[in-house]
Each structure stands twice: as structure tokens, then as C-alpha cells.
UniProtKB/TrEMBL annotation:
Name this protein carries in UniProt: Tetratricopeptide repeat protein
TPR repeats mapped onto the chain: 219-252, 287-320
Key word Repeat present: yes
A Pfam family annotated for this UniProt entry: ChAPs
Transmembrane segments: none
Xref: SMART domains: TPR
Amino acid sequence: MKTNILTAAAVSFLTMTTFAQKDQVKNAEDALDDGNYAEAKAQLKVAEANLSGLNDKWQENFYLYKGKAYSGGNPTAEDMKMAAEAFQKAVDMGSDEATEGLTALKNNLIQSAISDQNKEDFEAAADKLYTSYDLSKQDTIYLYYAANNLVQAQKYDKAANYLEMLNELDYDGSGEAFTAVNVETGERENLGSKQQMDLMIKTNQYKEPEVEKIPSKKGEIAALIARIYINQEKYDKAIAAMDKAKATNPDDMGLLQAEANMYYQMGEKDKAREILEEVAANDPSDPATFNNIGLMYAEIEDTEKAIEFYKKALDADSEFNEARINLIAAKLSKERSIIDEMNGLGMSKKDNARYDELDAERKELYKEVLPFLEKAMEVDPENTDIVKTAMNLYTNLGNQEKADELKAKL
């Protein structure tokens, strides 16, 4: 009989505890209705101590209210993470309301991260973006953005860790962006999917739909990892990270570009140039590659080779003015030795004859360069340096009419 009395007393105690927990959960709901998130958190903390005593429905409500309490007001990144974990538990228990709360929370995390970025609080943005990734591991784009924000925040060790994670996940990031122009704002916006883009075009709120190719980010990721390790003088790690990325993506030209940049930063410029020449052989359509090779040859004062590659860049894209300007500079670099020799001549008959030869050589050089300058001005008419250079050359060639025309343009 004594045992029965004790058992009855224990059951009575458990029942009283359960009633108290239910009251606390209900009090938390009332506090949430009043917008009193601090009180809701306090009630839920008391209830959580004996949560197992509640049935499944009350536990589901507990996690739903906890998600609401920690995501309400002005939550920190840690609050949002706790809210997300609570919402997820409620979702797992069948709560449709928690599903909506979790979706809203993810959107709020992203918007809050964007706000942090705009304020240049890159570390806070990274924390929120990583939390977004942590909530939904398939959303690896947020891990990528978190890593980039950490680079901006100069938190290089943590950034490298995130970037290495992306490599482990074989993250690519390529795809398609379905964009259209917002009629009201005039801004082009990413509408998420082809279906959404088509729908918004039909509403006449958007126009000019486009499908834009998003290139692979593997090369960029490898380049960032290498840059971090190079800055830290961890060259072995930089090379190992690049080799690892290339092993899984041997045909990725972006990775070869990144590798060339890595060796260039490390001071191994010959190796960097060799890699870029391999890239150019595999993809002769990219003018920037040829231009960069030209610049590397210019650094070692191999002017003829530099000009050769600038011309290849222009063959790939005749509007690539950067290569054209570099070509002009390379050609005009020959002027220095001509002028130096002219200035070193004396007044003898022989010297005067040589002076005339050199002057004629200089003018031929100017005539050779002028067509490139004319084209450069056509492609980039606002570049005053190009106009000034052309004006000086016309003056030296005695074409004052053309020089005055360009002066008026300036």
C-alpha cells in the first residue's frame, strides 16, 4: 500500500509539472502576441527544463514559439541560428507554420547580411550567410558569399577554411540567371527562374527578358585560396590547393588562369607565362589572356614578343582597347633609344647626317603608330591620354591642322 501511495504521489507531481510547463508554453504564446520577445524567451527557458514531459503537439508548439521568440525584435546572428534550429525541429514534427517561419527567417538572414555588406560590416555579413548555408546545406552559394565577405573583412584563416570546404564540396557555381528590366525602376533584376521571368513579363511590370550564363567559380575560389596563402607566405599550401582543384577539374581554363596568377604573385613569372600560353592555345578566343602574356613579355623587355601577343589579343577582339593601348606603348618604347642617340650627337657634318636619319626613323615610327591611335580614339573617345598622344604625334609630323582638331576636342 505504501508503494501505491508513493506512486500516486509521483504521478500527481508529474501531472502538476506538465500542467506548469503547458502554462509556460501558453504564456510564451501570449507574450509573442504582445510582441514581448524577452518574456517569451524567459517562459520557454523554464519550460525547456522538463520538455520531455510534454506530448508531441505541445513540444511542436514549444519549438514553434521558440523560433518566433528568437527571430523576433532585433535578433543577433546567434539568435537567428537558435530560431532556425527551433523552427526546423517544429517542421520535423509537422508544423506548417514553422515551415513558413523558417522560410521567412532565411530571407531575413540574407537581407540582414546584405545590409551588413552595405555598411561594410563584412564579418557580421559572413556569419549570417554561413548560418543560411548551415540551415540548408544545398545552398552552397551562401558559403561562397560568406567566404568572400571574410576576405573583405581580412579574416583570412576562416575565409580559407570556407573556401577549402567549397573545394571539398566540388562547388561550381555556374548556371543561368533569368533577368528582366523592372519597368518602374529601370533596373535589371534576377527573377530566379524561367517560369517566374515569363510570368513577370506577362504582367507588363518587366521587359527585355534575358538568360545570362553564370560562369564557373572554381577558378575564382582556387585563386582566392592561393592569394590568401601567398599573402601569408604559405606557398606550399597555395600550390597544394591549386593542384587539388585542378585534379578534379583538369579542363577548367579558369583554374589555369588562377594558377598563372598564383605563380606570378609568387614571383615565378616565367612559369606563369608558360601556363598562360597553354591557356591561350586551348582558348584562343579570350583577348585578355593574350594581353596578359604580352604584358609579361614587356616586363622582360622583349618588345617584339609583347607586340606579337597584343596583336593576337586584337585578332580575338578588335574592340579590346587595353591591348591596343599596350601595343602603342610597346611601339613607342622604341622612340626612347632614337631620341637618346639624337641628343648625344655633336655638330659635325656626319652627326648632322645621322641626326636626319634618326629623325626620319622617328617620324616613320609615328606614322606606324597613328592608325592604332586613331582606332583607339574611335573605340574610347573619352580617353584624353590617347587624344593627347595622337595630338603630339601629329604636331611632330607637321600636321598642325589635325593636331588643332584634336586640341579642340580636348
